[in-house]
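Quick one: structure for this chain?
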Amino acid sequence: MAKVKPFRGVRPPRDLVTQVASRPYDVLNSEEARKEAEGNPRSLYHIIKPEIDFAPGTDEHDPKVYDKAVENFNAFQQNGWLVQDDKEHYYIYAQTMNGRTQYGIVIAANVADYMEGRIKKHELTRRDKEEDRMKHVRINNANIEPVFFAFPDNEVLQKVIDDVTKNEPEYDFTAPDGFGHHFWVIDNPEMIETVTREFDRIPYLYIADGHHRSAAAALVGHEKAQNNPAHKGDEEYNYFLAVAFPASHLNIIDYNRVVRDLNGLTPEEFLARIAENFTVEDKGTEEYRPTALHNFSLYLGGHWYSLTAKPGTYNDNDPIGILDVTISSDLILRDILGITDLRSDKRIDFVGGIRGLGELSRRVDSGEMAMALALYPVSMKQLMDIADSGNIMPPKTTWFEPKLRSGLIIHKLD
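Got it. Here's what it folds into:
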């Protein structure tokens, strides 16, 4: 069962929240962060992307950069830009995109639940990325940014969300990207007890987004436990920061592919090879979006094509084989284009669906890429089924939007 606890959040005063809050560390590069933080000493980028405080080109993994993160985190607290709550709370964090709002509960999740598989993952992590975030957690002795969890819908927790969000939010603002962010503090002791009890009845939590942050946070907590001779199990380092959303609130959007060349084939030869396993329809120059599972959209030579996988080319009883990312990776990228490693092959790139189909046609029309492939989005049910079966999704399968805003809440490990 999922063990969670309330915690004394570290967060900005209401009038500073829009200056402190930032995008997550991993969705922009150093120069983009430098530009976004320009003229704003209170931007969280000074803590999560502290290389911006050095000359351009400074290695973000340089020890002095990690040291700068700590210096800045301490300064933010001394200046009153980040203040720790007096009591332990849960919090509600909601996000609005395109008129639709999703509501999550901010929790301290249990390290042992991660280590023992009660917090389930669906992606592989890279050790170098884990180590970078572990250094950041370790040196700051805090989870500066939350991870993004999902849990099976729960009526009692939904009622808590509904009751709390009837009140005026602590924070309520629209970020520069147009997404709304709303935040409430749960300070009713009975409600706090209810949240703890209900999560204890939920068998598993699921990582939706932030696999490297989850791994890093849990591994540092585990490391602290091993290094403490007086370890009891109730110390704050046994928990890490997460926002957990009911699964029905979440919407996975498409994650699409662009490829630089056709592996020596002419466009006609390429389409003929595709037609061996797919029903191909030329849709002309108007954008075509996949309409259902096993239907794909191909952009090639100024035209959009509908590709529908033929029966027998996939296995509906295999949680991985049924995925459109598997079908396209095997039958198009591997068998026709010779791309076998999606993580490292420089001939392929990935475009989050938030950028629209126009970004796919733009990159092909510019001559940078030869073709683009749009996929039907994975469902939350598929994600949870794969995690439950102990399988791992292929790379670049899920794209969650909106991303959690960083800087609304921080969790200290002491």
